[in-house]
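Please decode residue identities from the backbone states below.
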């Protein structure tokens, strides 16, 4: 119940999916949560707000440095510190190398990579003054294995994994840990397009790629993020934690 007692956590992408599940999980563990999203928090955020009274929700775009600075400043002004940053804002993207246009490449890199960089850069300035902090990025197993038709998304997530290592090195002597989670396919609005009849075969193939034969739930990723964010992970930094129902562990043969 109290794994994040008295901690202040800033969570981007908090209006939906993994970010929202993480914000709620953090609130249940005693954190004060500042949510940030380009969309309004809506009902999903109400569950967090009613669990962690005094928590705050800000709208803004992670790709705009001014919006990121203002969110970090507001969190520090209101709550005095930022102990945990979770970068869960992100978008999917489909297309093979010769099909992706420049605008789509820039959109996805800006949100998935630059947005996480900007939030870490500015939250870390506050964490450096405290001499402590934990940053958790959300990468993907698609940053570790190559899938066809996913050039932009997979490349953005591979870069997030490497950014995690570089940031861990930058802050290792300053009491700030930086890790990322690498989820398999998770049931959230991001993968909702796979519910369409035309995508049924692909969805089934993806389910079977997980040794456990199913997509994960947002709560299952939130629990891994909670672990990395908390003091229980005090000797873990620069680590990509795979949470993928066995997708990257191997292949099930029909014997
Ligand atoms: N769902 C999956 O299968 C899966 C698997 C691996 C990794 N991930 C990653 O997890 C993270 C969360 O994804 P999700 O599945 O919860 O998706 P989601 O669509 O449910 O939530 C993403 C949130 O990010 C917000 N967002 C998007 N662009 C933004 C911007 N420019 N500024 C601020 N907020 C913005 C959206 O409004 C949304 O609320 C993403 O980085 C995604 O790539 C998801």
């Amino acid at each position: 119940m109290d794994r994040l007692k008295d901690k202040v956590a800033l969570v981007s992408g908090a209006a939906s999916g993994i970010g929202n599940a993480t914000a709620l999980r953090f609130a249940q563990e005693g954190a004060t949560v500042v949510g940030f999203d380009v969309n309004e928090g809506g009902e999903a955020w109400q569950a967090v707000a009613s669990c962690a009274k005094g928590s705050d929700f800000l709208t803004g775009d992670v790709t705009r440095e001014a919006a990121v600075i203002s969110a970090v400043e507001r969190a520090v002004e209101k709550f005095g510190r930022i102990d945990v940053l979770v970068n869960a804002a992100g978008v999917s993207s489909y297309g093979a190398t010769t099909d992706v246009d420049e605008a789509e490449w820039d959109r996805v890199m800006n949100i998935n990579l630059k947005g996480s960089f900007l939030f870490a850069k500015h939250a870390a300035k506050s964490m450096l003054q405290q001499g402590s902090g934990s940053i958790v990025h959300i990468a993907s197993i698609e940053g570790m294995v190559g899938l066809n038709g996913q050039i932009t998304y997979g490349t953005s997530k591979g870069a997030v994994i490497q950014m995690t290592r570089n940031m861990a090195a930058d802050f290792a002597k300053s009491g700030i840990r930086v890790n990322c989670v690498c989820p398999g396919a998770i049931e959230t609005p991001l993968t909702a397009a796979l519910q369409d009849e035309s995508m049924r075969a692909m969805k089934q193939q993806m389910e079977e790629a997980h040794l456990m034969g199913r997509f994960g739930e947002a709560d299952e990723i939130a629990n891994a993020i909670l672990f990395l964010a908390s003091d229980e992970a005090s000797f873990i930094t620069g680590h990509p934690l795979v949470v993928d129902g066995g997708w990257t562990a191997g292949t099930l043969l029909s014997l």
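Observation: The beta strands are 8-12, 32-37, 56-59, 84-87, 133-138, 176-183, 186-187, 216-217, 240-243.
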